[in-house]
Amino acid sequence: MLENVNNFLTEIIDEDIKNGLSERIHTRFPPEPNGYLHIGSAKAIFINWSIAKKYNGLFNLRYDDTNPVKEDTEYVDSIWEDIKWLTGEEPSGGVYYGSDYFETCFNCAVQLIKDGKAYVDDLTQEEMRQYRGSLTEPGKPSPYRDRSVEENLQLFQDMRDGKFADGSKTLRAKIDMASPNMNLRDPAIYRIVRAHHHRQGDKWCIYPLYDFAHPIQDALEGITHSMCSIEFENHRPLYEWVVDNCPLPHHPKQREFARLNVTHTVMSKRYLRQLVFEKHVEGWDDPRMPTLCALRRRGYTPSAILDFVQRAGIAKANSLVDIKLLEHCIREELNETALRRMAVTEPVKLVITNYPEGQCEEFEVPNNPRNEEAGSRKVPFTRELYIEKSDFAEVPPPKFQRLKPDGEVRLMGAYIVKCNEIVKDDNGEIVEIRCTADLETRNGMPVDGRKVKGTIHWVSAEHAIDADLYLYDNLFTLENVNDVPEGTDYLDYLNPDSLKKLTGCKLEPSLADAKEGERFQFVRMGYYCKDRESGRFNRIVTLKDSFAKTLKK
């Protein structure tokens, strides 16, 4: 499958190979360990991993841990687990950390100073912003731009030795303050930050900025194609400037692709952190979140996510992908693979008055009618059952084909029953439906050949297990959360109905042995996944697939 991956990036690589590229294709995924990976990250992973696979190349995982303020080993560990889960393997090129290259980055900066291509600046961030100019006006040079090489070398060493306060000085590349590309107007490449680093401890108090560290890291690892999201396209000239002007053994090639934006959700790590830390959700793995760990907990599979990424497309133009496409991908997969089970979400008791008390028989029902190899299972049948409250109507609407007074319905895989009586409580609520069964039914069909249109599912009251079902909807009511109306905040569009909890549900007894992460189709109800919390199942997706019709057009 991966050998057939084709997009504009593979066309670039094909052209490079045609023009004499002799190096083995080498890609990387460089996440910052300051949050959990999300479905947008899955696109970047897929692109770099699948291209390495296609060309029999290497794929690196490199943690971009150059900002210690928000980084944590919790995120390092979660990224590692997500990468292995999504791809099914460890990175073929190895696992690296940007912080392991700090000494080399420092030496590259020193060489730039010696070559007159970098200087220590005393301007504050606000002053640097003012000096930078605008899209229509050139910037003006810092008054510290012409410091001597000797003074800059000493000041930079003093920065490393901790002699200056945080933010009081920066090291800037000396490029062109009049460049039409704002990123080339003497960008900062080192800043002073006193923060404990998750790997380096307190060894460093200066840290390289991303645009400086990233190309150095790529070059040192032998990356042939540095593929990143489209917002870095204007940064490419700086990427190439760093590689051209630093003493590095290799020259990677940067190319950009559009980010993955999905309806009714956010991808900004800042927003995701806010949702978690302000407790708008239960955590990073709340099944309403777009994080990979949340999708995993909800019941999504790696194959469905990668299928979604491919169907959404790899291009340079930004677009907004309907979340229904993701739902279609997992629904299409589970329709073929998920075992069928019976679950009653709003139970009402059904008593078969002509069935012997204390008797129990077992009916054999298929585990998946679409897959004979899935086999079958035996389900206990007793005098007292539970059925869905919505499968009975005292005053049925037109064309209602389920159970009604004096009406017949087929119990899935078992007998045909006829409603004879209903029992209500003091509030007028139906608490029991009394029926008689056609005990001569064979394989769900009456022996006299009469037609019974409706079929409903059921669970033996004696054998049923109790469970809670968690039903999820979109986290946001707004389709494009990246474009909120003026004067509003994205939090204003949190969906108050994004989670519905159904308690006291009745499930067939085989589900008592369900393992965490195991997926099922609850017949007529939807696809569910066993949660890590005891007695809880998360709804992955409903049975209805309106998006499939769109794909066929």
UniProtKB/TrEMBL annotation:
InterPro entries: Gln-tRNA-synth, Gln/Glu-tRNA_Ligase, Glu/Gln-tRNA-synth, Glu/Gln-tRNA-synth_Ib_cat-dom, Glu/Gln-tRNA-synth_Ib_codon-bd, Rbsml_bL25/Gln-tRNA_synth_N, Ribosomal_bL25/Gln-tRNA_synth, Rossmann-like_a/b/a_fold. Residues 25-335 form the Glutamyl/glutaminyl-tRNA synthetase class Ib catalytic domain. Keywords: Aminoacyl-tRNA synthetase, ATP-binding, Cytoplasm, Ligase, Nucleotide-binding, Protein biosynthesis. Transmembrane segments: none annotated. One of its GO terms (molecular function) is ligase activity. Residues 455-531 form the tRNA synthetases class I (E and Q) anti-codon binding domain. It holds the Pfam family tRNA-synt_1c_C2. Its EC number is 6.1.1.18. Residues 338-438 form the Glutamyl/glutaminyl-tRNA synthetase class Ib anti-codon binding domain. NCBIfam families: glnS, PRK14703.1. Belongs to the class-I aminoacyl-tRNA synthetase family. This is Glutamine--tRNA ligase.
